[in-house]
Amino acid sequence: MPQKIGRQPTIKDVAAVAGVSISTVSHVYSRARPISPETAARVTAAADELGYIPNPSAASLRGGQVGILGLVLRPRNAIHGSLSGTETFTRFSGAAAAATLATGRGLLHVPNVLASRARRVAMDGCIVMGPYEGDEVVIALEKRHVPVVCADIDPANPDDPWAVRVDYGPATESLLSAALALGARRVALIAGSEANNWTRSTKTLIQQWCTEAGVSLSAHNLYEGEGSVGAAGLAYELLTSSEAPDTIIVSSTRFASGVLAAAKRLDLTIPEDLRICALTDSALTREASPPITSLDLLLEDQAKACVDLLIHRLSGSAPTARPVVVTPSVRWRSSLAQIEN
Amino acid sequence: MPQKIGRQPTIKDVAAVAGVSISTVSHVYSRARPISPETAARVTAAADELGYIPNPSAASLRGGQVGILGLVLRPRNAIHGSLSGTETFTRFSGAAAAATLATGRGLLHVPNVLASRARRVAMDGCIVMGPYEGDEVVIALEKRHVPVVCADIDPANPDDPWAVRVDYGPATESLLSAALALGARRVALIAGSEANNWTRSTKTLIQQWCTEAGVSLSAHNLYEGEGSVGAAGLAYELLTSSEAPDTIIVSSTRFASGVLAAAKRLDLTIPEDLRICALTDSALTREASPPITSLDLLLEDQAKACVDLLIHRLSGSAPTARPVVVTPSVRWRSSLAQIEN
DNA sequence: TTGAAAGCGCTAACAG
DNA sequence: CTGTTAGCGCTTTCAA
To answer: What CATH number belongs to A68-167+300-328?
Structure first.
């Protein structure tokens, strides 16, 4: 019986044309059981003739996987910001896509999990980048029975075996040591306002280090959306106060631009009068004058590790014995030079 | 009857607990018909209790859409190259993701459509960026009955109503006019080797313009993978030949870096001795010394237009009366200054 | 090596 | 406003 017009051919049509049962056609495509070469050829020919393509939704309905890994970028400024401000996210997404595609799966930017108006989409598992403390997206996803892997831990869930951990310790420490060696005595931190581990953990590390080293620290939080203008204002205020810092650490690279602007306005020489460094890297710090020393968060490594870990999780295996850790490194530039040994 | 253990709750379980029929449960989620508030509440409560989530594969099986738009980046150097070389693709992907998410759908990086080992994934439609002439991916997708929208036309299919067109004419023209006004008499073009419209169309436009303007042109093709090193070699060769160009137009921004290196090696002053411009833009041209005049392909506009056009196509509407066109603009920098009027 | 048949979880007539 | 029921297209036992 020929294919009915106006309808996409189904496995039934192919079976009819090839003169076999639908289960045979199914097995030709799923390769789940041996099919004689002749039969396979007949089926393939019939399928080609009809333009048959297995329907992925139907194929996965029976409990199979859909071949899609989800990705959710949590930081509020992801995607919607301008290019330079979102380099972190484009680097991560691009690397995650490359790693996922290499496995034959697709990578999906998942529509807002918390919005009831957004479509519910099928996925085998999901990567959540930069989860907040007790992240509601992670919770919602788990409620949907979607296995999740996080890039950087949820601060409320530090022992999650299904997170790729980011160890900010070594890089933060060498940043501070270098600053100290260069004469830093009064450090100011302009951190973002997001309740994620990057913000939290670096802040804690810096506080601890300063306490131990006997270096004074004034810590400030600024919403990332304030951008360079907001940071310039705050930096100007700090730098003209009676207890002006000699070193400013910023989280976002836009904040770095702002601090640079404030320093210029005050005619401060960098790094002599003021040392600056940033806790992430982008074109804004690389191409600033002077270029700004920054943490490279190794987003490509993080993304690749997340994809690997998620696939591991999907295989049903137990978590790896030791956690997956990525250790950011410092990109030394003239705004805060490395100590020569 | 309580939910069987070890199994995800289905619509049936919810119906049983809520004491309603499965179609009622279905309609509570699909909102396809009115449900009394009380019933809806009972259903929702039961669903919450059981942790029920509608299965997206089953929901779409009936012929509905899956809420996913696919994206395929055709140029060979997409994704796999280094960051600066792939700014084009990250800009496009990021913008496409943002535009898609804004509609409540997800954006999927589609696993290799041509590889039989890659998973077949469900999608409602697909954006193909930078199709080749008679692109086999587009053909394969259409064979799968996936509606396609292209970013930039397939050179073999110039009248495709389902493509977002990129009009390179005005920008190319003003680039060349500026070069002429600055004394250009011998132009060299180092174009990429990809058989896409960007490569083809800009080359043709440049050839035509040079012929009409009586400017000599030597056109060369170089595989994008040769990068700046390859371009430096070719540029050095050209610049030391008896008929050295006074203006070099490159397609990729890596080629621009190479030309710059060759010029430096030959101690040429830019733009006095040699004028340079690029047919796309990236950090490599923005941050070069001197900065290099480039075409901004307005990837964000292209991506947004593709998402809109694809959604239009999915709605079953006829193509728009007039084609969707994006017109790139020139970013004037010192390597080739704009004419003052 | 192949076929028959029972679903997978949900949607959408149709009936009330 | 709600229930019944027949599939959506495919996978997967169970038989042969």
So the answer is: 3.40.50.2300
